[in-house]
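Lab notebook, bench 4. The sequencing result for the construct came back, and we need a structural model before the next group meeting so we can plan mutations. Quick request posted to the team channel:

Model the 3D structure of this chain.
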Amino acid sequence: MSIKCTIIIQKEDNWYVATDIHSGVASQGKTIDEATANLKEALSLYYEDNRPEETHPEVYVTTLEVAI
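Done. Here's the predicted structure in token form:
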């Protein structure tokens, strides 16, 4: 079984932090690829004990520019 996850990656100091928006599971790495791979492993372990919902709500992620 596989599921699709929507993740956010943020740079914090010298680390990239990847977070799944549905479960809140996060992991980090020195590169984006490392953070993503670490999150994938963390999510696999998380979902061993926490059965995912059959469907995730449809999520749209975008940027928005606001004049200030």
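The first strand starts at residue 7 and ends at 12.
Will bring this to the meeting.
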